[in-house]
Design a protein that fits this description.
The complex is a heterodimer of chains A (75) and B (313). Chain A is of the alpha+beta class. Chain A has one domain: Ubiquitin-like (UB roll), CATH 3.10.20. Chain A is 27% helix and 29% strand. Chain A has a 3-stranded antiparallel beta sheet, with helices on one face. Chain B is mainly α. Chain B has a two-stranded antiparallel sheet with strand order 1-2. A two-stranded antiparallel sheet of chain B has the order 3-4. Chain B starts with 5 loop residues before the first helix and ends with a helix. The chains are: A alpha+beta (75), B mainly alpha (313). The A-B interface holds A 1, 5, 20-25, 38-42, 63-65 and B 20-21, 23, 72, 76, 79-80, 83, 87, 92, 149-150, 152-153, 156-157, 307-308, 311.
């Protein structure tokens, strides 16, 4: 089953920072939303978003998970 | 791989350096982290079928919901730990679906059947307390930043599991009669089971590097003491017999039975009267796994291949 990594970002209260809380593997955007909502259910989030990891563009680093994801996506 | 040597990395993490990914690690660090995360992930994963099969003993729809909420949390924690393993080059697919039952690294306690509601609540009271003890130490001390961040959620939820277990232990113990007897019987086999879970005593511990790499902060014996410092007073408060007591002279909790000792998994009985056994004998028992090992692993893996085949068709 081909799955992709989606990073999960949440904001607990109105006015809070949107922060990275983890990630899930999913087939597509819709399942990623469901998996994120059911996996990271430790708070009543004001906002939750998922981002496909390959859509995160590293700005200042040349190593790390986001760089690796970019490399893997362009093989 | 890391720009540091093993010695340099050990010194840096002791001074507060946080490792963010494989690019910062030495091979030694990666291996020690892999072992730690595999035990963590497998323990969370195998607690799920163990609690799930016991949840059918829940006495009401409310307790069904809370038991299943715990199971849902445990699966999410397992998923997070396997994801962390994937980041350091392991395959989640292989770890969850490609291994034989005896290859999982969870503690022997999660190879045992939980046969009634009292056993499920004592398991969440004792085993989840062990989980919190181990993971709180990791949360406070780990040099691996992604794990430290992930543990915020996990610690929050494990505290709820523990509260659920302790509230119900209290309720059943206070009810007296059969309820109390069942709780006592569960304590009788699960207390020594959890004590053993923390592993080799410090004076016998092989050097694993987990402390040097700052993947944890406390030793096995210290963690055992932390667990007992909550669990023994709880049992005393509830009038339950736990085979350990506080020793004023030593300034620590001491066990009232030969440790380690042999366990009869069929009768759920610790052979205190047969005396102390070697740790080699314990490892042999662990390696042979417990009565529910294959059933629990099969329940996790069973449908994967079928659905893969349907989707590929």
């Amino acid at each position: 089953m081909k799955e992709f990594v989606y990073d999960v970002f949440t904001r607990k209260e109105r006015g809070d920072r949107l922060q990275h809380v983890g990630y899930v593997d999913a087939f597509d955007d819709e399942t990623a939303k469901v998996y994120a909502w059911t996996t990271y259910d430790e708070e009543k989030w004001f906002e939750m978003c998922v981002v496909k990891r390959t859509n995160v563009l590293p700005v200042n680093r040349t190593d790390g998970l986001f760089v690796e994801a970019q490399k893997a996506a362009h093989v | 791989m890391s720009q540091f040597t093993d010695e340099e990395l050990k010194q840096k993490v002791q001074a507060g350096y946080m490792v963010e990914g494989p690019e910062d690690m030495t091979e030694g660090y990666r291996k020690a982290l892999r072992v730690q995360l595999t035990v963590q992930a497998d323990t969370e994963l195998m607690s799920a079928p163990s609690y799930w099969m016991a949840a059918r003993h829940a006495p009401s729809t409310n307790t069904q919901v809370s038991a299943h909420a715990i199971i849902q949390d445990e699966l999410a924690h397992a998923n997070i730990a396997y994801r962390l393993l994937e980041d350091i080059g392991e395959s989640k697919e292989h770890l969850v679906y490609g291994r034989q039952p005896h290859e999982f690294k969870h503690p022997y306690g999660f190879d045992q059947p939980l046969d009634n509601w009292a056993e499920l609540v004592v398991a969440t009271g004792f085993f989840d307390r062990a989980g919190i003890t181990l993971l709180t130490d990791v949360h406070e001390n780990t040099s691996y930043a992604p794990l430290k961040r992930a543990l915020v959620k996990i610690s929050m939820e494990e505290t709820f599991h523990l509260r659920h277990g302790e509230v119900w232990m209290r309720r059943l113990a206070k009810a007296g009669g059969e309820a109390r007897e069942l709780v006592q019987r569960a304590v009788d086999w699960m207390f020594p089971m959890t004590i053993e879970w923390f592993g080799l005593p410090d004076d016998m511990k092989r050097h694993s590097g987990q402390l040097d790499y700052k993947l944890k902060g406390l030793t096995n014996d210290q963690l055992r003491q932390v667990w007992m410092s909550s669990t023994v007073p709880l049992c005393e408060e509830l009038g339950l017999n736990a085979p350990a007591h506080w020793d004023d002279e030593k300034g620590e909790y001491v066990l009232d039975y030969p440790f380690p000792c042999q366990y009869d998994a069929v009768d759920k009985h610790w052979a205190f009267d047969e005396g102390e056994i070697s740790w080699d004998a314990v490892f042999e028992r662990w390696k042979g796994r417990g009565p529910m090992n294959e059933i629990y692993v099969e329940s996790v893996q069973r449908s994967r291949m079928d659905v893969e085949r349907w989707l590929a068709a």
